[in-house]
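U., I forgot to send this yesterday:
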Amino acid sequence: MLRQDWSKHPCPIARSLDVVGDPWVLLVLREALFGATRFEQFRERLQVADNVLTRRLGQMVDAGLLRRSPYRGKQRTHEEYVITDAAADLLPVLDALARWGEQHTQAPERHVEMFFVHRSAGHRSTEMTVCTTCGERLTFEDRAYQRQWAGTAERRS
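Result:
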């Protein structure tokens, strides 16, 4: 089914969905917020086909969610994908989806939780905007998710 273009719709929800309504976009964004910057990192973490990932990364760059930044590899220059302020502003949306999923969807039998970490203090927090241990306001730069199912704790770098 072809998707409608909602980019010029008067409703801001429709315009937002035009940019982030594809599930792959939100999953790529999740990994970028966890610190993935390189194509190989996204591909490995998401187990996604190269053509799908290439298309989504390009769309996200065009939409202003990511920007390309060159880096020198062993033999040639490659590009990293760096989150923009627009992508960082979507963090509360991902937080809300995570909370909703915890409350309203069935977890796997061996479920382990995902929680927030106050990075500079090293505290675990149950809230996304204020550290429930020390009361300090949590900014995008000073908080991260910790995903126990991903092996070791991952923090957005």
